[in-house]
Each structure stands twice: as structure tokens, then as C-alpha cells.
Amino acid sequence: MAPKHQVSCLAADPSDRRLVYAGTRDGVLRSEDCGLSWQRSGMEGHIVKSLAVSPHDSNVIYAGTKPALLFVSNDRGKSWTELEGFRRIPNRWWWFSPAEPPDMRAYVIAIAPSPGDPNVILAGIEFGAVVRSEDGGQSWSGHRTGALRDCHSLKFHADDGDWAYEAGGSGGGASFSRDGGRTFHKAKSGLAKNYGIVCAADPEKSETWYVCVGSSPFNAFGKNPQVYLYRSAGAAGWHPIGWQSHPLPVAPTALTTVPGAPGHLYAGLYNGDVWHTADLGDSWEKLPFSFEGVWFSLLVI
Fold it and tell me: Which residues, including other chains, have CB under 8 Å from residue 80's CB and lie 6 or more apart?
């Protein structure tokens, strides 16, 4: 039975894709059967906005909340501990999120554990910062050079811990790192718009990644969204892709790739439709189902 909660994020255990976690406005839910049934998994009373399972130890799960705090479980969600060093990030006093009035409190929208180093974690705060830890979340850097402060999507490559990718609403819409998230480089040249919505990377070719951009948050999800989907292949720059000519009629709000399936990309749309490509975006098919809507989280399990 599906959880009757307002779900804001999803995460799957990389070692057992049947094990899925959902972040809600009242803690974490856990499913052991690909989402057919759910039970509570702690964090009650917290608005959970992001989740990530360690690629090195599936017992370790990270949860980001609103307000912007970070928690860790070392026993698959049975118990949780706050990573208090996250409260001491430099200049966090001015973080705020105009996306969620009236309180506009900042929140952790993305958590990205490195696939190369179990101690390295990136975290993105909507309209705040992209920060990095080198000790498993005990202490954190300030905002990383070149990253987009208005973070919307932040991911490491599935296997290559040198590469990280970001889509955001500031600084041109897209940015990437080739040194494990220490520094980022804006990749706005060639993009038609500068409001980054979501990103993903091919599981085999780390230099190949995708980003969806729009003109602003005010028209990216309306009747005339003016959104564009691009693929970058290193020095080749950005190449427009999609199932229709640009601008696309509905915004992709989730992009998902699958480990072991190079070239495959799933796009979850704001209206609930899901499109799939097996050739890096050159051709597409609409999958024969639709959700009520997709909002920044889409799992293929």
C-alpha cells in the first residue's frame, strides 16, 4: 500500500534495489518490496527533503531536512543522529528559500556521497550553498568555488568520484566538478536559458551528462514552460535533445540514469509522464503509464 504522506524525496539501496526510502513532512518511510508496502523508519517530526544511501555501506543513510540540518543513520534507518557540524557551516545565517513561502526557511535539497571516498559528501541547499565534507559529515566547508548557490540538483557520477554535477537557479543553470567537488566550473555556454532544474550523468561516460533548463521558476512549470533539455559530451558542448522540438511543452522535473545501463536516461515530467531513451537522447519513447506528477525524485528499480 502506498504511503499516505506528502513525499518529497526518494532513495534506493544500491546493493538491494528492493529497499527504498521516502522522505516526508513527518520523517522517513521504508519499503522492502519496491514500494508496494511501507513502514516508518524514524525521523518523526522532521520535514525530510533529501535522502541518500552510502554507495560503500548500505547501512549508512543520510537525511537532509527543513530547516537545513543533516542527519545520519548507521543501521538502515532504525536510529538517527544529527551531524551537528552542519550547523557550523560558514555564513549559513543568510540561507533562505523563496521557493517555500511564507517562512522561506532554507533546506537541504540534495545529498551526494562520493562513490570513490566513503568520507566525502556533498550537500546542496536551495538558495544557500554547495558544501563538502571530508570526514563523513562531521565537519563541512563553506560554499564551493564555482558551484551554484541556488542548488536544485546535485549528483556524483555513479562510479567516478572525481566528477560531480549540479543544476541550479543561479550562475547560468549548470556547473560541474572534476576534482571530487572541491571546485566547480560553470557550464552555461550554449544553454538557451539559465535556470537549471535538474541534472543527471551517464553511468559509463562521466563526461556525458544532462541538464534541463528554463527561463525562471515562474514559468518553468506553467502553461508555457519554455524549458530545454541538453546533453553535454565533454568538449562537444551542449546538444539539445528531447522527444519534441524545443522548447518542450512540459518541464522534465526528474532525470534518472541506471548503473550498468549506459546510454539510458529516464525523464519524469511535471505532469507525471515518463519518457525513456536508450541512445543518449537521440530517440525517445513515452512509457505506458503516468503518475499524478513528478517532483525532483524518480527511481528506476
Answer: 42, 43, 63, 71, 72, 73
CA distances from 236 to 35, 230, 231, 239 (A): 39, 12, 10, 8
Pairing of β 27-31 and β 39-40: antiparallel
> Which residues is 201 bridged to in the sheet?
209
Burial of 236 (0-12, 13-18, 19+ CB in 10 A): exposed
Spatial contact of 264 and 277, defined as CB atoms under 8 Å apart: yes
| 218-235 mean pLDDT | 82
pLDDT(220) > 90: no
State how far the Cα of 19 lies from the Cα of 261, in Å rounded to an integer: 20
By residue count, the chain amounts to: 301
List, in order of start, the domains of the chain with CATH numbers.
7-290 (2.130.10.10)
What percentage of the chain exceeds 70 in pLDDT? 98
Scored b (16 or more CB within 10 A) or e, 202-234 reads bbbbbbbbbbbbbbeeeebbeeebbbbbbbbee
Q: Is 98 left (phi over 0), alpha (psi -120 to 50) or beta?
A: alpha
Instruction: State how far the Cα of 127 lies from the Cα of 124, in Å rounded to an integer.
Output: 9
CB proximity list for 264: less than 8 A, separation 6 or greater? 257, 258, 276, 277, 278
∠288-285-205 over CA atoms, to 5°? 125
Using DSSP's 3-state secondary structure scheme, residue 18 falls into strand
SS3 state at 122: strand
Cα torsion 256, 257, 258, 261: sign: positive
Q: How far apart are CA 274 and CA 104, in angstroms?
A: 31
User: Which stretch of 167-176, 181-190, 214-223 has the lowest confidence by average pLDDT?
Assistant: 214-223
